[in-house]
Write a structure and sequence with these properties.
The complex is a heterodimer of chains A (109) and B (373). Chain A has helices at residues 2-20, 66-78; strands spanning 37-45, 48-50, 59-62, 86-94, 100-104. Chain A is of the alpha+beta class. Chain B is mainly α and 373 residues long. Chain B has a four-stranded mixed β-sheet with strand order 2-1-3-4, with helices on one face. In chain B, α13 (260-271) links the parallel β1 and β2. The chains are: A alpha+beta (109), B mainly alpha (373).
């Protein structure tokens, strides 16, 4: 019985790892430190710049996909910050590639 | 103290791994990883709920209660593990604590924490190392496949960018300066190849000794190059490979019983042979060097000395403590080299010097019979 539970646990992971390849985020899919995303986050609330809103550094190297940062921002603004008037500007580039921009709330899903 | 006596708990219990419901190799692996969790301070980073994967955690956000419950649960489970009480439940509890921490906070999520959680959960569910083996295969498969499908990895662009942030070894930049496109691409393809090779070896290979050396060397080299253990990842990987090795068999050691220094050495090793795996017997006639036999394997000289050390589980407790506390990127490389076949000629040289002069060593009576040269 214990072994069966362990086997099912591994099987769930295998399915998750496979399905993750069809999305842009990489939560829970065994892609450790596979990304070199240089990013810069600018958050303004009521016209004032604020730092550390999402408990991640406002700039630096992020070793997961940029979509993960976007997921954090969207979830925060959809829940804890839904009453705030916040604008977020995320500039990032992956592995030295061209700059990409993501802006909240315009680009949010 | 009375409670300890009634429960059969001795002061050596935390360092013993036999006599529980878990196979001793798996219990040892769990204890080693638990030592790393405590000494690296990973237990202290358990989070408050914040941007959870599961929304119901938001209902308990805003107070430190959740975080303190996690920490208390974790330390209690680790304590129980070291007292050899409810070891399976303890491992599962440790795994669930880390899982709860991850599910309660996307910011806390890191692959290394998830890996630690999986290892503890699977040890708790295991009667053999098979589940650990397949977990490791899955990690290598996931990591290798993800890289292979990423254009930045295939072109080397990832390493060209990442190296400026992560690599601490100056020699890398010397080579990268000579071949700025080739070296990053080579590093990327080496990583992918090694990870996918290890995945295949773990899934289909019959003997894993070579795979263990490849895996441990790969990760140790990464630590050396970057000066990072990637959180708990390096420790969890070492423990996973270690969990798949066989529990040490009984070892018979033949030594020079007339030599005071040798006898003092024997008493030292016997004192720390908590699992009673060693059987020391004096030579019937003088020999040049110590002999050791494990099953059908026979060792002499430094190789015998090394066999005595690596067959004692306490050695690995010491290694875990050193790796957890000494944050020096050469340390893991030094430990790997000393345990590898590369160190044998050096060790043999040192052993012969000591063996030739053992009658002059501390503890010698000066009346040791010397073997004929």
């Amino acid at each position: 019985m214990k072994r069966r539970i362990g086997q099912v646990f591994l099987l769930v992971q295998l399915v998750w790892v496979t399905l993750a390849q069809f999305g842009s985020a990489r939560w829970l899919c065994w892609a450790p430190n596979d990304y070199a995303v240089e990013y810069h986050l600018v958050v303004t609330k009521d016209g004032q710049s604020i730092a550390g809103r999402y408990k991640i550094p406002d700039k630096g190297l992020y070793e997961n996909p940029a979509q993960n940062i976007i997921d954090l921002i969207e979830q925060y603004e959809r829940t804890y910050g839904r009453k705030d008037r916040v604008e977020v500007d995320l500039t990032y580039r992956n592995s030295g590639g061209p700059d990409s921009h993501w802006h909240f709330p315009e680009d949010a899903r | 103290m009375d409670w300890c006596k009634r429960q059969g708990v001795k002061f050596t219990t935390p360092l013993r791994c036999t006599g529980t419901s878990l196979p001793p190799q798996l219990l040892l692996a769990a204890k080693l990883l638990a030592i790393c969790v405590v000494l690296t301070g990973a237990w202290h980073d358990l989070p408050d709920p914040f941007l959870p994967f599961l929304s119901f955690f938001d209902g308990i956000a805003g107070t430190p209660v959740f975080r303190w419950v996690l920490k208390l649960g974790l330390l209690t489970a680790i304590g129980s593990l070291f007292l050899n009480r409810c070891v399976r439940l303890s491992c599962i509890a440790i795994g669930l604590v880390f899982s709860a921490g991850i599910l309660s906070s996307r910011v806390f999520f890191e692959n290394n924490i998830l890996f630690v959680a999986c290892i503890f959960l699977l040890i708790g569910l295991s009667d053999s190392p098979q589940l650990i083996r397949y977990q490791l295969a899955l990690v290598y498969f996931g990591a290798g496949t993800n890289k292979l499908l990423d254009a930045a990895w295939r072109s080397g662009a990832f390493f060209a960018t990442w190296s400026h942030y992560a690599i601490r070894e100056p020699m890398y930049f010397v080579f990268a300066g000579i071949a700025p496109r080739t070296v990053p691409r080579l590093m990327c393809w080496s990583s992918m190849t090694i990870e996918l090779t290890l995945a295949a070896w773990l899934l289909f290979g019959k003997r894993l000794h070579g795979a263990a050396w490849l895996g441990v060397s790969f990760h140790t080299m990464t630590v050396f190059m970057t000066g990072r253990t990637f959180g708990m990842f390096y420790y969890a990987i070492l423990v996973s490979w270690f969990a798949m090795q066989a529990w040490p068999k009984k070892i018979t050691i033949l030594y020079d019983g007339d030599c005071g220094f040798c006898d003092r050495t024997r008493r030292f090793f016997e004192r720390w042979d908590l699992e009673r795996l060693q059987h020391w017997t004096p030579f019937e006639r003088p020999e040049k060097s110590i002999h050791a036999r494990i099953a059908d394997e026979f060792y002499t000289g430094f190789a015998a000395f090394k066999a005595i050390i690596v067959s004692n589980p306490l050695t690995y407790f010491a290694v875990a403590v050193v790796l957890s506390l000494v944050h020096y990127r050469w340390m893991s490389m030094i430990l790997l080299l000393t345990m590898s076949p590369l160190f044998v000629p050096v060790g043999e040289f040192g052993y012969r010097r000591i063996a030739r002069n053992r009658y002059r060593m501390p503890g010698s009576s000066g009346e040791c019979a010397l073997p004929e040269q």
